[in-house]
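Hey everyone, long-time lurker, first post.

I ran two proteins through the pipeline my lab uses and got sequence/structure pairs for each. Pasting them in order. The first:
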Amino acid sequence: MGRLLVHFHVYYEDQIPWFLEKMENICGCEWDLAVSYSHMEEASRERILSFRPDAMMFQLGNMGYDLWPFIHILKSLDISRYDYVMKLHTKAPFKKRMKWRSVPIKGNVWRDRLVDALLESPETFRRLIMRFEQDPSAGLFCQRIFLITAESPFPEDNEALSEEMSRIGLSVEDRHFCAGTMFLARMAPFGFIVKAPIGAEMFSCASVSHGNGSLAHVYERILSFVVSACGLSLIPVDTAEPHRRERFLLWYHYNVSPFFEGIFSLTRDPVTRVKYLTLFRIRIPLDKGKKL
C-alpha cells in the first residue's frame, strides 16, 4: 500500500483532539506524523505524543501560515521514503455566514469538509489509497467544493503567482488548486518543491489580507500545480455523508447559474480587469480595464 507522511500544522491548539480523532481513520498503510507549530502548551504536546509516540515535532514560526512549515518539512526529511503525503492544518472558524459556490460556509464547515473528504471514516481513506494503487494518473485528492481555478479577483495575486512560477521554473496548463490546502497526494511531484530555491525569509512578511499578492497564497496554488505539472490528475472527492442540500446548491451553481449569467450579468475579468456586460451570451466590454 505504500508509505504515507502526514503533515499536521497546529495554530489553534483546541482543535488538536478533533484532528487526532480523524487521523485514527488512517489504515492499511504505514505512516509517519510530522507536526509543526509556533507555540504549544505541554499538555497539547503530550496529547500528540500519546497518540503517536514517534511523531516528529517541528517548532517553527507561523510564517506563511501552514505553507512554509509544509515546505520546510519536505526539505528537512528524506521524502523518497514516502509514496504519499497528506497535508492537514487547524483552521479558524468563520464567524460570519458566507457562500462558497452557493454553499453556505459558517463555523468549521470549510475545515470539516476538507478533512472529511479524506478521513471521514477508515473506508474513506482506504478507498483513496486504493485509487492511487489502481490509477497511475491519480495525483491529488481534494474536497470537490474547494477544488477551484487559480484566477483570483485580486490582480496582485495573479501577478505574484506568475512571477513566482517564472522564478522557480514551473509551467503548467491546468491551473486548478485545492483552496484551503488540505489534501492527499502522491509524494513524487513534491520533489520539485524540495529542489526549488524557497526559503523561510521569503515568507517573513505578515499577510494582512487575502488579496495582497502574499507568497503564502501563491504557494497555496503552486502545491497543486506541481502535481498537474507531472501529468497527474487533481481529483475532486465528496464526503460520504450526503449533505444533500450542499449537493443541490452545487448542481445549481454549475448548471443553472451559468444559464442566467449568460442572459444577463455584469462581471470583471480577473486578469485584464475589463468590465463586461453579458446579454444573451454576447459579452460587451464596458471599459478598458482598471490599472493597478
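...and the second, right after it:
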Amino acid sequence: MSRKQKLQKNSVIVITGPTASGKTSLAIELAKTINSEIISADSRQIYKYMDICTAKPSKDELKSVKHHLIDFLDPSEDYSAGKFVSDANIILNNLINNNVLPIICGGSGFYIKSLFDGLFEEKSKSNPEIRNKLNEEFKQFGLKYIQEKLNSIDPNSYSKIDLDNPHRLIRALEYYFSTGELLSEAHRNRNQQKSIFDPIYFAIDYHRKDLYSRINDRCEEMWNNGLVNEYKSLINLGYDKDLNSLNTVGYKESRDYIYGVYSESVAIEEFRKNTRRFAKRQLTWFRKNQEIYWLDGKQNSKLNQIKDILEL
C-alpha cells in the first residue's frame, strides 16, 4: 500500500475483483465522494429483468449515482467484448471531456482487459456451419462436454475463458476449426491496440475462506429474496431457457430445482459451490494483473485506502 498514484487527464478508476467482494458499494461510495459516474463492466448486469441473480445495484443505488451500460439490453440479445469496448469508449470520452473522473466497476475481466489492453482482431469471420455443429453438440452433450473439448484442444484458452459461458467456449472452438490456429496463440501473436486511457485498478482482497463465506451468505440471500421466481418470470415472458444469458450460475440451479433435478437444499448448495468456483477463476485472472492495488477487505474503510493511494 506504499505506492502512490498520480491522476492524469485520461485516468480511469477501475474497481474490479471476484464476485461478492463488495465492488458495487465501494464504487458507489467513491462516486459520491468525487462526484463521478459509474460504467458497469458486468456481462450480465447489462440485461433487463435480471436483477437478483446478477446482484444489480438497487433502484436507490442507481438513483444515487448515474450508471452506464446497465439494465439496457433484452435477455435474448447477445453482447460482446467488442461492443463493450465501443460503448465504453464513447462514455469515457464524454466524461473525461466534461472533467469527470470515470469509475468502471465490474468483475468481467475480459471486458476490462479488452478495453485497456486492446481487443484482439480475429483474422476470420464466423463460420456458421462449424458453429451450428458445435451448438448441436452442446445441446446434445451439455456444457461439460464443450468445456472438456476445448481443454483438450486449447488448454490456454480453457484456463482464461469464462467456463460458464457456452458462447465463448464455442467461439474458441469455432476459431480453431475454422483457421487451424489456437485462439490463445492468435491472441498472443497479434498486435493489439492499447487504449488512450490510463486505468488505475483496485480490488478488495479477502482471505479465501472469508470470501467464500461472503459468497455463501449472498447466495442464500439471493435465493430467499426471490431468485427462483425471477427465473420463472423470465421463462413466463417467453425467454428460452437455453439463452446464453440464462445459462449462468444462479439461474441454472433455479431451473434444476424447478424441474425436480435438485431438492431446494441441494440447489442452494450447488449455487454456492458453483459461485465459489466462478470466484476462484476470477481470482486467477485478476492475480495476473500486477497493476491492481489490492485493498484490505478487513479494514472498515476501503474508500480511505483508495483516497490514500490517489491522494484525493
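Reply from user beta_strand_b:
Welcome! Quick read of the second one: The mean pLDDT is 92. Residues 264-287 form the longest helix (24 residues).
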